[in-house]
Specification:
The structure is a homodimer.
Chain A lengths: L4 H17 L5 H7 L6 H13 L3 E2 L8 E2 L1 H15 L7 H12 L5 H16 L2 E5 L8 E10 L2 E8 L3 E8 L6 H15 L9 H11 L3 H19 L3 E4 L13 H12 L1 H14 L5 E5 L11 E9 L5 E9 L4 H25 L1
Helix pairs in contact in A: 2-3, 4-12, 5-6, 5-12, 8-9
Chain A binds a DNA duplex (30 and 30 nucleotides) through helix 3.
DNA sequence: TGTTAGCACTCCATAGAAACGAGTGCTAAT
DNA sequence: ATTAGCACTCGTTTCTATGGAGTGCTAACA
């Protein structure tokens, strides 16, 4: 048996209604809700069919129906296609983000934090944003300077303008000439190289050329290495974790505690980021319903993610986490608009600079 | 009427018992619990007195008693004095921190994060740590370098080795000589100055001397200014927020949601940090019971804070947030030990460098 | 005079019973 | 194919015991 037009309409009505109320919806409600002009009895028959097909579930014999994961999935897939043209819907809130992005602060960190917060406030769900991941980055600039007689400041810039500093202590003060020589040594040998491609042989060669300052060069190389290390545990910013308390189905102690922990230990979220980045099939938007999510503690949630891309292949993820009955419609179109803005604005303003 | 020895002992027994169980404690329990060898009837009389004095409360007529804020306060004040000598009690967990601190990473951020986490795991309460606040700091080093033809990297180091970078875009490439000249200009004029003391007159003088590069110097000064701005919203790291679910009196939706929000919006916690730093009377440990806390959303919690101090007057705060019936004993001694270790270890390892 | 045993009383917590009502499935009529 | 009608199910809410923990008070005791 396939889904005819009418069944689809009924299913849609059930889901819409359930998204709003969070209560199982009965046949009588649907009978009024839709423009089909059918009696509740007819609806009941159809609902029995839909249940048999696995699109809806009856929590107990005398209750209404709620959508199953399969039902949600159908709804979402259907909806995304439909929405394609009316992209400019959720403009209201996204315009504010536009503004934030334009007056972009020096620290990308604070931009992302603010964005997460704003998204959370507008959607009433929990949000997460991962900082763009830098991969295969090339060293753009490396420099050591004397901050005071015993302290050397290392500054490293990689493509994408990620900057890393560290202070190294030295036993004997370096004079200006040595400093200059070492800087030239480092830059001529390392500039333009992908960090991953720096191997042991190169390091030992460098150390050899540095002579008595081999130790110092070694420490500088440690700093270089730490750029990669930093990169491995991706920065993730979250906001609106408290929103889960607005949805009774998530707010019981057991679940709430788990979810809060998940948001706190951002590490678990990074699985989600990874999955999103690898699974991305081109649309850039992904929906995980219930158990589909790669994070087990979120099995009672739905997650909608978007990947955004800056220039130079830096990719990041935005995620919205809410109950199964989240307003997919609004969330997806919000994310779509935001994504497209991010993609374009960031690119543009980076070309300026 | 004053508190005689016996009343004190009874009060103490009540509190101890309540801390453990979280249930109102009755006279019979106390009669067995203490070594006073008194019947429950006698205890009842004493308890009636204690209640009249305001140290304990009866939730309802036929229930046992629970400590009032006044009772907790007495207990805590008493206990702190008693504990003074047995400082080495909570060594177990603190030794691990010792280790972390010794192998201290370059980023203070990650040390503090880890510390917060470890504290939370050991105590089963929520924790917060504020990064040391830098005040009245002097510029130690300032430098601009050319990263690529159109991009200038600004690096600023202030006392305490706080480093700040920013990339500035320029329309026309700068040659080496100009760069050197500007660096000398900036360093000779600004080095050693407290950032707060840089005024408009100096800036305009600098700009004048920079000639055609006045704009660039202006942007550099903006970066300098942002060091202060960064400082104003203190970095605060939290951990173990989910622990509040372990205490039923905090775990109802209303309260939990408020608390989670408080931990998320670190801003509210900064009030606590401020209060702790200003109220500190020398012991370095402070206890806020219930309504005593400056953060309203925590009125059902108790907070124990410690201020730690690194060299150069950099002060930070560690806080442990739990239910009113937190294990003050353990928390206070843990914080004391940790504080003393932080005070000494950090100082020492900074002298090394 | 301080302590204790005993007892009536209070009041929360728990469990069960009863009433309710939303919603269903099925049947028979249209 | 649709619908009205009806018996039935089952979760939710409300009410009513019942039990027990704990108290305050009184009277007896050392």
């Amino acid at each position: 048996m396939d889904l005819d037009e009418r069944k689809l309409k009924i299913l849609q009505a059930i889901i819409r209604n359930y998204l709003e109320t969070g209560e199982p919806v009965g046949s009588r409600t649907i009978s009024k809700y839709t423009d089909l002009n059918l009696s509740s009895a007819t609806i009941r028959n159809e609902m029995a069919d839909l249940e048999e097909l696995g699109y809806i579930i009856q929590p107990h014999t005398s209750a209404g129906r709620i959508p199953s994961d399969k039902g949600y999935r159908l709804y979402v897939d259907h909806m995304i296609l439909e929405k394609e043209e009316q992209l400019n819907q959720a403009t209201q809130e996204v315009k504010e983000m536009h503004k934030i992005l334009l007056e972009r602060e020096d620290k990308m960190e604070s931009v992302l934090k603010q964005m997460a917060k704003m998204l959370a406030e507008n959607t009433n769900y929990a949000t997460m944003i991962s900082a763009p991941q830098v991969r295969g980055n090339k060293l753009k600039f490396i420099q050591i300077s004397r901050v005071d007689p015993r302290q050397i400041l290392t500054t490293i810039v990689v493509e994408g303008n990620v900057i890393k500093n560290s202070i190294i202590s030295v036993a004997d003060p370096l004079d200006d000439e040595t400093l200059l020589k070492l800087n030239i040594l480092l830059n001529t040998n390392l500039n333009g190289l992908a960090i991953e491609s720096i191997n042991l042989a190169m390091i030992s060669k460098l150390k050899q050329q540095a002579g008595v300052y081999a130790d110092l060069v070694g420490e500088v190389m440690d700093v270089v290495a730490s750029v990669i290390k930093d990169d491995e545990n991706i920065e993730i910013y979250t906001s609106g974790a408290n929103n889960i308390f607005k949805y009774p189905e998530l707010a019981d102690n057991q679940r709430a505690s788990e979810l809060i922990t998940t948001f706190e230990e951002k590490q678990m979220l990074s699985e989600l980021v990874q999955d999103t980045l690898t699974e991305d099939k081109g649309t850039g938007i992904q929906v995980y319903i219930g158990n589909e999510t790669p994070v087990k503690t979120m099995k009672d949630c739905s997650v909608v993610t978007a990947t955004y891309e800056l220039e130079e292949g830096m990719k990041g993820t935005i995620g919205i986490i809410g109950p199964r009955r989240m307003d997919y419609d609004k969330v997806i179109s919000t994310l779509k608009t935001l994504k497209s803005q991010l993609d374009t604005i960031y690119k543009k303003s980076d070309e300026e600079s």
